[in-house]
Amino acid sequence: MASPELKGLVPFSRKSLELIKQHIAKKHSEENEEDDLKPNPDLNVGKKLPLLYGNLSGEMVSEPLEDVDPYYYNKKTFMVLNKNRTIFRFNAASIFCTLSPFSTIRGTTIKVLIHPLFQLLILISVLTDCILMTMINGPEWEPAVEHTLLGIYTFEILVKVIARGIGAGPFSFLGDPWNWLDFSVTLFEIVTRFSSLNLTHMLESVRTLRILKIIPLNQGLKSLVGILIHCLKKLSGAIILTLFFLSIFSLIGMGLFMGNLKHKCLWWPQENKNETLYNRTGNPHYIPETESFYYLEGEEDALLCGNRTDASQCPEGYVCVKAGKNPDRGSSNFDNFGWAFLALFRLMAQDYPEALYHQILYASGKIYMLFFVVVTFWFAFYMASLFIGILSMAYEEEKKAASEKTETKATFQQTIKALQEGNGAAENKSTQIEMKKRSPAFLSTSVDMLEESTSGHNEELKKSRKKCPLCWYKIAKTFLIWDCSPCWQKLKNFVHRIIMDPFTDLFLIICIILNILFLALEHYPMSEDTWSLLFFGNMVFIGIFTAEMILKIIAMHPYQYFQVGWNIFDSIIVLFGLAEFYLANIAGLGDFRQLRILRIFKLGKYWPTFRKLMLTLSNSLMALRDIILLLFTFVFFSAVFGMRLFGESYKECVCRIDKDCRLPRWHMHDFFHSYLIVFRILCGEWIETLWDCMEVAGPSSCICFYMMVILIGNLLILYLFLGFVSAFNSYRDATPEEDSEAKNIQLAMARIKKGLNYVLLKILCKKQNVPKKTVDHVNDTYVKENTSDHTLSELSNTQYFPKEKEKSSNTEKNTTTENESQSLIPSPSVSESVPIASGESDIEYADNKEIQSRSGHEDSKGKIKQSSSSECSTVDIATSEEEMVNEHERLKHLITDRRRSSPSQISKEYKKKKIWQNIRKTCCKIVENSWFKCFIGLVTLLSTGALAFEDIYIDQRKTIKILLEYADMIFTYIFILEMLLKWMAYGFKAYFCNAWHRLDFIVVIVFCLSLIGKTREDLKPLTSIKFLRAIRVLSQFERMKVVVRTLIKTTLPTLNVFLVCFMIWLTFSIMGVHLFAGKFYACTDQPNGEKLPVSEVLNRSQCESHLYNESLSWENAQLNFDNVGNGLLSLLQVATFNGWIDIVYSAIDSLDVDMQPSFESNLYMYCYFIAFVILGLFLPLSMLIGVIITNFNKHKIKQGGSNMFITAKQKKQYRWLKRLMYDDSPKPIPRPGNKLQGFIFDLVTSRVFNVIIMVLICLQAIIIMMESDEQSPQMYAVIFWINSTFVILYTAECVLKLISFHCYYFTSIWNILDFMVVVFSITGLFLPLTVGYYLVPPSLVQLVLLSRIIHILRRGKGPKVFHDLMLPLLLSLPALMNISLLIFLVMFIYAIFGMYNFAYVKKEAGINDVSNFETFCSSMICLFQVTIFAGWDGLLNAVFNSKWSDCDPDKINPGTQVRGDCGNPSVGIFYFVSYIFIIWLIIVNMYIAVIMEFLSIVSKKKTRSLSEYDFRKFFQVWERFDPDRTQYIDSCKLSDFAAALDPPLFMAKPNKGQLVAMDLPMAVGDRIHCLDVLLAFTKRVVGKDAGTEKTLSEIESAFALANPIKITYEPITTTLKRKQETVSATIIQRAYKNYRSRQNDKNTADISILDSGQELQDTKKGVCLGKVKEKSAIQSQI
């Protein structure tokens, strides 16, 4: 289709409208013509008209113009431009109460509507309304302002209705959804204000929707909303799948935990112990439940209990009964589907999961930890990965489209710039003609850059060159450029040499680091000397920085100095420092001290990584400004909406949530607190505030509001997060060559190094004056010793040993090899030049054929080149073990004894060396043997597993303890023996050059030390390092090695980014020390831990003066900001949102040092934590993940795009899984010959039957949803019979399939699953009748029947989107298994470490009967909490108890010799922080692995590549059309064959035209060969690119290999030629038929003419005769 020419600005007239109507009518008549035009994005509504369309004269402003976009030429539209050239588009149709575009009234309203002042008025009105809506008690003039604003909104609607029409088209008033919202709100407000209806509260809530008017007023926000709606459409499949699994797990939770959370410990007198508990209300000794439950100290809810052995047990005197309500005000339970769904949604969102986790384990047993593990993995990991993957795919598509548009614009900008700078008008004219010839798509991507075009370019260029008035340049030249005198120039040059010297930069960076250290040394309490030292240091640094500024100003002139951004930053720091010095003692101005932290960022001047990250951040902030503004708008709207909706409820019903009837910390009565609640919801902490909201306002409205904030808010945050990650994904580490400061630092360090080398050389030269004979003797001795110590591989390629040359070369080689072997990741050079034993090759390129050929197998014969010799190997490089040892001994013998040895001595020496050779050969065979490796692996697992038995009960299990002691000795001896064998086989260098061997050596040392620790009491602490034994598992299993290597590859390059993030955290920690140091102390009552109010205790002195009350103490919070270390730990808890609420409470209640905290006295300290969450958590997290993804992709490309977390063997499993997932066509089951069986076979294989079964499965799930706890007996009976009916139906289905399928029934795994469901359902239905319902719960049958719902995920049974979304998980299973093994190993190691250090810690805070470190299982429960970042603050608080007031160091622990229940804070901090950091890195890589797998699947679908599955399906379909396997089919069958294929090879009918166009060769009999069809179809799918021919040749060669006996043939024609022949024959036949038809018609015409002539003559004769007769008759009458 020809591209339309560029259209100028033409007024819209009646003639224009008539032409449009005629064009539309013409389009309707031409039905076959396709219109493929699309709207020009640069001519959308709200964009500015490019200057390419000409100048805008005054007559055209605010006047109707013909639409310049060809797309709208047939839409009956016209456009109007305002003074700013902004495009407005209107409908020209005069229908449905729409005035004519030529109407004066409509023209006037259009002018008003598009005027910038009118839009500014609306924006100001909306902002004013937003401010008024945040006020609880507004000023007196507020009603008048509200009425005025209502009038403005009404006037706006009237103007829009008249200007646009009501419903005349897409640009009418009702064509914009935002107008619907505006009209509804305005109409509701008018009706409410001017009627007698009392809807004031509802009006306040509805009015908040006006805040959303900001979105349509900003074109960027409006388009972004459209993008997000598009993303939601793509997320629809994932949302449905999430709801499906939430429902399924909710039903499972109902079956497992229904009513369990009502089990509580009830006090029961001993004399009534034999009475039945269910009839307790009739017992005279019964005590009311609320008073008789057992409560733990500080807990609001009663202690939960269970009847299982692994559940919580009640204390003595209490019994476990089902009574009272559920915990958390009745909101945490699984008693019906609604509450269960909310609980699962809470677990999915990972909000306070540790509370529900503990409640279930208390009431149901520790075994149900598996339920939480599965739920956490499925929702918090996999479903989250799916959402991130889909959103990232959508974001990358949008980014790619924008980048393509930008590139095209940049290209076109260069063309326009060349045009503008040209001198000839001819060139300008030719360029315009060229632009007219371009397509509209090209113009649409380039018009933005044309805004700098033509007429106004020269003026703009001058303005850009002169940003300031001319007078300012004169002033700057006069006063800011100092060229006073030659003396000044000399001084300036001298200062310039000093200040620009590399050593000056080095001195400055040392001062900056020292200044940061001084800032970090501030703490509380601080001695006078320390304070003086820090104060003096601060003055010194201020002086140094001031001197730097002054000297640079002198050296560079003020004009040049302030042209550099870092110099401006330095001057600001100096200004603040001097201001702090002079204003520090003035009241209210001491906050200048906070500005010291800016000095930390001076380090960025000399840190390229920091500067590059900050530049990337600033650019991304500008690019993402629309999404940031939209997120802020949504948060503001949610806060105001929540305040208006629930504010009064919090005030009126406050007594329901607070015993003192005082508003709690989290409420929505005012805007600031409502904003804090919304912010907390977006941080993932919402369930506790939701409980309060449901108490005061009801569940329905609160849940709807919270779900809205959670879903929409998280979508916006996730999209923003992906934007930042994508920005940092393109980050590359900066090099020092890119900036002068880094070069200066390197130059200074090089000079220092050169100077040190010179000094050392001078010192060493004095020691070189030794006798020459001594030197020769030393060299000779060295050669002898070095020769005797050489490894076999060093000697196997050397014939002679010159002394000095060999010494130097060996030194160089050893240095290189040792440096390269320091990491677990061998470099490629090492992997090629350091061959070691084949079984010990731990490098990642072990599957490389070139490396394997060098690995020294027995079948490797021939000579090895000298370049492949190794400094770290003794076995693999020789052709065989015997030859290696012989060569080694022969060379050693020749060097040491060639002058003194006799032949007999040589023979004896040779025999001795032969024995040594055989010993080493035997050792090598042993350690390389696969059975030996399996044995060592088994011993490693046993030694690791034995650690799990050493819990607090080990002293009570004497037999197990003795067995473990003997086992430790046996394991130690085995590992020592293995180490000795490897030393013998590989030599010391080869052994210790391998990082995994070094790890094994460390573990052997650990074994030995632990055994030594058992021998002496004073060495007993050495036994606590036994947990390191488990590290040996890493070196024994390749799956874990692969994960460790990948983690190192993706993490080590990010160390610079980690340091930048740490610097940000250090800044916030120092700021926290300045703000809160010493202010978290409070006077508390020890028994209950409550803080006394300010009305009772005002400060520390009053607290300590209460001598009569010994329970009062002035205590500090466990987590505080008294020093930088505590500040960093507090910030870590804020970052993980664990325990951060207590830290925030302490901050906002703080007053001053030694002052008693007061409730929310420092309320706006919330801003500090909000700033940290945004700047210290969100942005650094985006940086880290973006850089990790960059490294991940880089190394993945190096490995050819394969998964980095799987081994070579697992790659085969990956391909097998891929085939399994794509293969949905199992072997067909033969139809039985018996009529009855055949009828049943047709029945059970029909689609209707399968649909009925799926409906039954869904009905079964719906029936379970209807259940609830404590339902009526009638309901129980109904559900029992319904379940029985389902069992009968499923049994009938199974029997019918068994009858029709016979033994083929069990060939399908799905049939086996159905058969097991039937068996277990029947068993579960009848077994309770014999053994009772206590052993077999009634819910068992329902859960078994529910398992059939998995059929929905089956390909072909359920929605296809489910299968597509499950595919990444199944294909990632090998990688996930490897990562999960590493996570389990880390958890195991830390669990053992926790058992050794925290087993006897006092049970309080997070350590209780369920979560503790007493046993291995309990430790794993604790670590699972920490793994999901839930509740680790409580565990740390318990470990912090190390004072006499908190614990008892002399407490006797029964059954063991260990005394005390105190913790170790320093060990606890290291334990939890290191675990969180390691687990975070592993989990991030897990997310990346699954997301990358998802994106790779999507990208393969987009690239239209063909897989092995597609080819296999092709041949399966071909086999149906060619049952005799002749490799040919008739051409008449080709259309059906193409329609029978699966996508992407599928070709829907009608497809004969496409098949003919493929020009397929045809053999005799109009037959087509299989390979020709396959190649043609492949070319159609893949397309025409550089790799197509290669792909086709590979397919052809593969077909030839698969079909060696290929039938050769000579094609006689092609489908295209045959079609042409057919068409030609048809044309000839038609022509001949037409000719014959014409001849026949001609002959018939001649005959008819003769006949008609004769008839005419006869007629004439008859007429004449009639006339004669008539005349004669008349005459006769006369």
Short description:
The chain has about 1700 residues and is mainly α.
Explain the overall architecture.
Helix content is 63%, strand content 3%. With 1678 residues, it is mainly alpha-helical. The strands form 5 sheets. Strands 1-2-3 form a 3-stranded antiparallel beta sheet, with no helix packed on it. β2 and β3 form a beta hairpin. The termini are far apart.
- Residue share in β-strands: under 5%
CA-based gyration radius = 43 Å
* Total count of helical runs of at least 4 residues: 61
The SS-based structural class is mainly alpha
Largest sheet: 3 strands, antiparallel
Uncertain runs are 1-6, 273-288, 423-466, 768-885, 891-895, 1667-1678
The N- to C-terminal Cα distance equals 87 Å
Multimer state: single chain
**Mean pLDDT over all positions:** 79
Number of strands: 12
Bin the helical content. 55-70%
Strand order of the largest sheet: 1-2-3
Shape: globular
Layout of secondary structure:
Layout: H1 14-29, E1 65-66, E2 77-81, E3 87-91, H2 104-114, H3 116-133, H4 142-164, H5 177-193, H6 200-207, H7 214-217, H8 219-257, E4 263-267, H9 289-292, E5 318-322, H10 337-349, H11 353-364, H12 369-421, H13 425-437, H14 440-444, H15 457-465, H16 470-479, H17 486-499, H18 502-520, H19 528-561, H20 565-583, H21 608-623, H22 625-652, H23 671-682, H24 687-697, H25 699-729, H26 740-765, H27 772-789, H28 792-795, H29 803-820, H30 828-833, H31 849-852, H32 881-897, H33 903-928, H34 930-946, H35 958-993, H36 995-1015, H37 1032-1036, H38 1038-1051, H39 1055-1076, E6 1082-1085, E7 1090-1091, H40 1100-1105, E8 1112-1115, H41 1124-1136, H42 1140-1149, H43 1166-1198, H44 1208-1222, H45 1235-1244, H46 1247-1265, H47 1273-1301, H48 1309-1326, H49 1328-1331, H50 1339-1346, H51 1360-1371, H52 1373-1398, H53 1416-1427, H54 1432-1439, H55 1465-1502, H56 1508-1521, E9 1528-1530, H57 1534-1540, H58 1552-1557, E10 1561-1562, E11 1567-1569, H59 1570-1582, H60 1588-1602, E12 1613-1614, H61 1615-1677
Antiparallel strand pairs: 1-2, 2-3, 4-5, 6-7, 6-8, 9-11, 10-12
Helix pairs in contact: 2-4, 3-4, 4-5, 5-6, 6-22, 8-10, 8-12, 8-50, 10-12, 12-25, 12-55, 17-19, 18-19, 18-26, 19-20, 21-25, 22-23, 22-25, 24-25, 25-43, 27-29, 32-33, 33-35, 34-35, 35-36, 38-43, 38-52, 39-41, 39-43, 45-47, 46-47, 47-48, 48-50, 51-55, 52-53, 52-55, 59-60
